[in-house]
Amino acid sequence: MVVGFGLVTFGIGCVAQPDELRLEEGVSEELARHRRATLADLSYAYELSVPRDAGALTGTLITQFTLRDDSNSPVVIDFKDPGERVRTVYVNGEAAEWTAVFDHLAIDGSAFATDAHNEVSIEFEAGDEALNRNPDFLYTLFVPDRAHFSLPIFDQPDLKAPFSLTLEIPSEWVAVANGVEVSQELLDGGRTRYTYRETKPIPTYLLAFAVGGFQIEEAEQGGRTFRMFHRETDTAKVARNLDAVFDLHATALDWLEDYTQIEYPYGKFDFVLLPPFQYGGMEHPGSIFYRQQSLLLDESATQNQIIGRASLIAHETSHQWFGDLVTMAWFDDVWTKEVFANFMAAKIVQPSFPDLNHDLRFFLAHHNTAYGVDRTPGANAVRQPLENLREAGTLYGAIIYQKAPIVMRQLELLVGEETFRDGMREYLTEFAHSNATWPDLIAILDDLSDEDLADWSRVWVEEPGRPTVSTELTLADGRVTELRISQSDPAGEGRVWPQTMEITLSAGGTLSTLPVHLDGEPLLLGDWVGRDAPDFVLPNGGGFEYGHFHLDAGSRQHLIETLPEITDAKTRGIAWVTLWDAVLEREVAVGDWYALLLRGAVEEEDEQSLQRVLGYLGSTFWGYLSEDERAAQATSTEEILWGQVERATVTTRQSSYFNAWRNVVSTPTGLARLHRIWEQVDSVGGMKFSVEDYTSMATTLAILGEGDAEEILDRQFERIENPDRRARFLFVRPALSADPAVREAFFEGLSDPENRAREPWVLAALGYLHHPTRTSHSQRFVIPSLEMVEEIQRTGDIFFPQRWLGSTLGSHNDPALAADVKEWLDALPDDYPHRLRGKILQSTDGLDRAARIGNP
After folding, report:
1. Transmembrane ranges (predicted)?
2. Beta bridge partners of 123
C-alpha cells in the first residue's frame, strides 16, 4: 500500500488497467469500472435496529458475490468513516483483515475465493448522514452516492442487486421499504421486527426505508393496492386530496404499462409523504418518497400547483421504468432517467386535464427555466463527464430537467412518434433490470430511423448552450422584399443545431404557421416577398423550438404594444417568454416591459400564461426596477392586483392574484390590508386560507415591519398545531427577525453541516435573509455563502448547490455586489471544481443582468 497525494494505490492483476487501483474519497469511475469487471451475482441482506431516541442505528450486512479477480487485490466496500463504525468483518466465515481508506473498507484479497461464491459479513454502526433523522421519524435518501454514508455497500449504479431487509423498530412506529412486507413480529421491550421480501435488482441509490409515526391510507384501484404513508394531522385536508392522489397514480401506471408494453415491475406500490423532504419526489421502487405539501394541497391551491402535483406523480411513476427498471451505467447519464420521466409525465397528465392547452404547458414548464441556464457563461451540456460520484450532485439542474425534455421532443419529431415509442419499448426490454447508456439508446433508434442521430446528438446532448435564431425582415414601401430566418452560434464556434420549427406569422391579426427545418443554411420565406409587412414573425411558434429568438425590431415593438390581444393562447405564451428573453438581452426597455406586464395581469385569459406573467411581474418589480421606479409603481401595482383578486371568479385564478399581490405588497395601505387578513378581521371573498397561508402572511408582515414582528410570529406559532410545521417555523424564525444581529447569528450557524440537514428549511430561511427589502444588510452573507459552496457540495446536505446559490443571490441587483462577486470568481484557483464554478456562473448571471438593467 502506498499513500500519497490524497490517493491510495493497490497493485492489481490482469483484470483492470492501469496496473494500480487508486482509491480516493468518493467512488471514482476507475474504482467503479474495476468492481464492475470483477464482481458478479451480487446480493445484499441488511438487518438494522432503529432506536427510539437519538442513539445510533446498529446493523449487520451479509453480501454475497462471485469474485472474478485472481490478483489478491483488496475487495473495496464503500462506507463513510469505517474506522469508527465497523465492528467486525468476516469473509466466508473467517475474521478478515481490512484497512480503512478514506470512505472505503479495503478487505484483504487473500480471504476471497476466485471465480466462486463469497460471503462478507459486517457488523456496523450506521452513519446518520443519509438517514434524515427527526424526533418522530427517519427516512433514507441515498441518491446519488450517499448509501455508503450510512451503510457498507458497493455504492455505484451499475452493480444492481437484490436487497433483503429486516428492521427492528419501536412498536409505536411503522415502517416501509422497497420490498414487500413479509412479517411483523412483536419483540420484548416494546419493539417490532419488520421483515421484507428480497427486491428485484435495483441500484444502491434506490434502496430506501422510512420508519416513524406515520398514518397509513389505503386504496384499491385496477386490481392494485396503493398505500400512502403521511404525517398530516389535518384530517379534512387528507380527505380532500386522497382520491385525486390515488387516481393520479393509477392513471400513470395504466398509461405507462400501455406505452411500454411492460407491466409495472415491482409488485407493491407504496408512497411516503415527508414534510421536510429535500425534493419534490424520489422514485424508490415500491416506495416512492414525496414532499408532503406537493401532494396534499390547500384549498387555495393554484392551477400550477394542481397540475404540478399530477406532473410530479407522473414523473416519479415513470421512473419505475425509466431509471429503476433500466438504470444508467454511470451518473454521466443521469439525465436519461430524468428526461424520460419529465417527457413521459407531459404525455401522461393530458387525459386528466382535457381542457388544458398541453403544448403551452410543455413550453412554459421547460423553456423559460432551461434558458435561465443556457444564456449564462456557466452553461453546461446535457451529458457531462463525471470522474467521481461525490461530484454527481453538480450534474443536476435545469439542463437535465428542462432542456433535455425539449431535446427529446425534437428527437421524437425527427424520427417520428411511432418509431420513438418502438425504440423505447426495445430499450426497456433489452436492458430490463440492468444498465444502459445514452449511446445504447441512440444505437437502437438509429437502427429504426434513417436519420444520422449520432451527429444530431453531438450538438444537442454533448455541447452546452443554445443557438441564436434571428428574424431579418426587409421592407420597401411597406411590403416585404426579404424575410430570412437564420441561426448562429453565440460562442463563435460555428456549431449548428438542426431543429424542426413552426414559424408563426400574423397579418392583420390573423395567424398562420409555416413548418420548416432549420439547419446551417438560412431560410428565405419567398412566399412573403411582395406582401404587406406582417404584424410580427415568431420563429418559435410551435413551442418546441429552442434557442435565443432574436426578433426583428418591428415584431418586438408590435408585441410590446399588442401582445394581450393575440387570440391564440399558445402564441401569447410563447411571446411572453420570448420578450422576457429580449428584456434580459436589453433589446426591450424594462419600463415598456413592466407596463405590458401590468396590462397582461388584467387581460391574460389563459391561466397558465397568467401565472407566468405574474411571476415575471414580481421578478421585474423587485429585481429590475430601480428603487425610484419601484416606489413610483408600488401603489398602482398593488391596486391592479388587488382589483383582480376581488374580480376573479375562479378560485385558482384568485389564488394566483392573491399570491402575486402578497409578493409585491410594500405600501402602508397594502400592508395594513394584509395585516387585517392575517388577523382574520378581513376576509377575501371565495378564498379559504390554510395555516400555511397564514404563516406566509405572517412572514411577509414580519420582514416588512408591519406591526410588532415578534408578536406576530409568536401568535402565528401558537396557531400551528402540526409538530412538523412547528419545527420548521422554529428553525426559520431567526431569519425573520427584525434584529440584524439575530439574522447574522443564524447565518453563522449554517456553517455547521448539522444546521443544513433539512434542505427545504435552509433554503426558505435564506430567502428570508435575502428578501429584496433586506439586501443592503444581507450583502454581507453573499461572499461567505459562495465560499461555503465547495463544502456544501462535498457534504451533500444541500443536494443541489444551485438552490443554495439561487436563494442567496436571487434578490440582489447592486452593481457593487456584482463587482465583488466577479472579483471573487476571478480569484478562484485554477483547480477549483469546474462544475461548481459553472454553477456559480449560472447563478451570478441573474445578478449581473439585474445590476445592469436595474441600474442603467
Report:
1. none
2. 60, 88
